[in-house]
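Q: Can I borrow your eye for a moment on a structure tokenisation matter? Would you mind producing a protein record, from residues through to fold? Write it directly below this note and I will take it from there.
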Amino acid sequence: MKARSLPFTTSLLLLASFLANAQTSIAPGSGNDYQAAVVRPWEEPAVRIAVFERLDASFSGDLWVTRSDDGGETWDAPEPVQASAANERHPSLVQTAPDRFQLFHLSDATGGFRIHRAESDDGRAFHPAGAIDLGWASPGEINPQVIRAADGTLVLSYHRLGGAAYVARSMDAGASWDSLRTQVSPAAAALPRLTQRAADGRFLLAYQTGSNPVSIWTRSSDDLADWSDPVRLVAGGNNHDAWPLALADGTWAVLWARVDAGAFQIHSSHSADGSAWSAPRAQSDRPGLNNVEPFALPNGAGRVELYWAAGQLPGDADYDIVRVADAVVVEGIFAHGFEEH
């Protein structure tokens, strides 16, 4: 039987989808680069600023920054942001004014892990502002993630070493924080991350529990002081590094690293209300190579601009931050009249 060729229109759509999903490295090299935090500045839609952690052989980190002025197509050579004898990891970058960026990260520079802040007026040079006070007498706050809420305040999610996940709010662009120590997970939880939906202001929290396997859970709330809604399991299996976000149409999405055929691959799932999640959708296909710690920016209906740490060698070594310009997390390419004939 003669093979039927795809119609020209469909072929163009498939080619465009392939090109959009090509993975490009934003910080190549032989070291371990993890945990990218990326902003698209309000008044400069073609600019991207990415801060990531670069780890040495003992997995102690420094923070580096790179910038793109052409929508993420090309990137400057990375420059160190926070580089010292201390272990500085897990950056979270947020814009607080047209000319102001706040960088939060964990550090043991003051003895024991605390969350530290640095400030910048251009997204290139950051000036350390020291550890933030979250109301804990002893150190142990790690893995911060900060979002700018709809009312302009900042909301921080973090967890205590070996303990539960918490949130705090800042009314002054990150200079000071409430000390309520609001617990958001029922018990011990790691890597809590938040997003907020613009349409109704509702928050979605994602976090992980366990060691092997690791489970990803979500929980939503209209009130940062009340996290009584049920927790929901996103997917079975061994899953790590959840990143939640609200898409343009209000759909919730979660991206994470999932063990598939012996290696971590990036997957996504979506939900209309946060109570039931779609089957995992693979976003990376790199057999035998690990892919971890996704980060995503909304990119239109059902789509995201996706970043993650991609292993260049088998095992847990030589990670580069890679980018996919336009990744589909809610399928719709053939949903509006595109058919094969």
